[in-house]
Recover the amino acids of this structure.
């Protein structure tokens, strides 16, 4: 609940000064050490990560306590890729499509005299390196079967990316995979699951070996494969923005397709991370998950306007009391949101972009009325039937979220701006006026907020005059008529505000 306190000199959470123990790296490194991410020329950490050494696990299973929040968000529904869901019951139907794609690929490069055996020979050389990328050993999968899985699954992915590009360029005739709009989207969701990945170096090698024009250079292969993958996953982006391929660094190294997908959300001006900032203290400072910024309804009453904008979903800005948030698409199958948060929590090299985003949403959405304001502003587009269902989804994003290092939190400046505004005289007065009046619906509340907006300068003038004449009219730093003070003596402030959903 968003509390409104009249005498209030310090917010409930002072995340600027709170010192707690450091967050542990959640990807264990048996040999010790830590891989540092690349930095841009300004010293800001980008989402581009250096390839992890073989001793690191770049592909891991989602912990059971996280998975139980929403089992379907982390489990493949159509196709299994890699060893974690190898031969999983219920996914057999797609195995025939994998074999069809493999035959199609081999026919396309038949003039190069390459066979499945040739591809398996190359993958055999990468088997040990590939197995080392997974957090759990797959001893139950024999070497021959593991290599065959690398070829079949890898060729399915690279051929799918090629055919997808041809199909949407109207070069490819109808294919069963692309016969419906739903199938490519469903496949895309499965290919973005953390447990459903092949190392990107496997896909790059297979892509290079199966190029129709002969084997391309490793750099050319990397750039083309990354470009095709980003285009294929475009419909699964969370916002209305379209990634500008020409502005994307296609030459960077990524662990797998999901790491590549995550990199496409990197803000233009990311917050410096703990990897690039020089700490002034050996102590780590962390932020709490909720309670340090008001909900959307209270912010609106306090004079903050919500406005949608185009661009990256992470490009959230506060300009002159207008909180600009790009449109976010959320539906019941929005797995990427959960997976992005989990990936950042369990990969110390990944900046906390979506963890920060989830924490911010968790703070400004406390009640269904908060959801209604965000929907009404065009910030959230949803397919849920009720605002309460969406609120529960947003709350679940941070249910198992660990504390974020303060230096990793992306929206610290924005939060400080909101808190500063809510501590101002006009904001406190607006909040108090609304708390004392029996508004029962959002329409009347919006009308009253608009009236306050127009009278704000007059209220400030009156506030200054009364403060000069008699300070006894003030409780804390906010002017309160004596009638309201008497009412406050009869009712606790918390109870009064709770009745208004504040």
């Amino acid at each position: 609940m968003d509390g409104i306190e009249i005498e209030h000199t310090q917010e409930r959470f002072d995340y600027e000064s709170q010192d707690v123990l450091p967050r542990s790296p959640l990807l264990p490194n048996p040999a010790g050490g830590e891989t540092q991410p690349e930095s841009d020329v300004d010293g800001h950490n980008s989402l581009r990560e250096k390839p992890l050494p073989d001793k690191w696990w770049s592909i891991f299973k989602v912990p059971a306590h996280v998975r139980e929040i929403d089992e379907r968000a982390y489990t493949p529904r159509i196709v299994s890729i890699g060893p974690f869901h190898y031969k999983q019951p219920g996914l057999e139907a797609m195995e025939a499509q994998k074999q069809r794609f493999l035959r199609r690929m081999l026919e396309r490069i038949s003039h190069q005299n390459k066979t499945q055996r040739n591809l398996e020979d190359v993958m055999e050389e990468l088997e040990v390196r590939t197995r080392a990328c997974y957090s759990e050993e797959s001893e139950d999968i024999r070497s021959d079967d593991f290599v065959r899985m690398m070829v079949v699954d890898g060729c399915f992915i690279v051929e799918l990316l090629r055919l997808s590009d041809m199909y949407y360029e109207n070069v490819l005739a109808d294919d069963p995979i692309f016969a419906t709009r739903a199938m490519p989207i469903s496949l895309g969701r499965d290919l973005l699951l953390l447990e459903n990945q092949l190392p990107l170096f496997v896909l790059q090698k297979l892509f290079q070996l199966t190029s129709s024009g002969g084997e391309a250079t490793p750099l050319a292969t990397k750039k083309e494969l990354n470009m095709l993958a980003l285009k294929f996953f475009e419909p699964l982006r969370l916002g209305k923005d379209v990634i500008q391929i020409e502005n994307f660094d296609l030459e960077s190294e990524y662990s797998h397709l999901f790491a590549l997908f995550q990199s496409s959300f990197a803000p233009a001006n990311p917050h410096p991370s703990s990897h690039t900032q020089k700490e002034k203290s050996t102590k780590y400072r962390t932020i709490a998950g909720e309670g340090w910024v008001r909900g959307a309804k209270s912010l609106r009453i306090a004079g903050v306007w919500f406005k949608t904008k185009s661009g990256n979903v992470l490009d959230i800005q506060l300009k002159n009391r207008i909180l600009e948030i790009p449109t976010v698409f959320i539906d019941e199958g929005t797995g990427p949101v959960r997976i992005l948060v989990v990936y950042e929590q369990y990969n110390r090299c990944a900046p906390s972009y979506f963890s920060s985003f989830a924490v911010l949403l968790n703070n400004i959405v406390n009640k269904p009325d908060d959801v209604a304001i965000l929907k009404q502003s065009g910030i959230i587009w949803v397919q849920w039937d009720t605002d309460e269902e969406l609120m529960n989804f947003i709350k679940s994003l941070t249910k198992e979220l660990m504390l974020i290092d303060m230096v990793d939190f992306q929206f610290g400046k924005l939060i400080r701006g909101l808190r500063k505004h809510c501590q101002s005289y006009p904001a406190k007065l607006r909040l108090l006026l609304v708390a004392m009046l029996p508004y029962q619906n959002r329409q009347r509340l919006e009308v009253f907020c608009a009236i306050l907006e127009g009278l704000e300068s007059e209220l400030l003038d009156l506030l200054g005059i009364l403060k000069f004449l008699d300070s006894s009219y003030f409780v804390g730093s906010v002017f309160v008529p004596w009638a309201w003070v008497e009412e406050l003596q009869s009712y606790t402030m918390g109870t009064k505000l709770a009745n208004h959903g504040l």
User: Anything to note?
Assistant: Residues 64-263 form one domain. The first helix runs from residue 64 to 67. Strands lie at 286-287, 305-309, 317-319, 322-326, 328-330, 380-382, 404-405, 474-475, 478-479. The chain has 18 helices and nine strands.
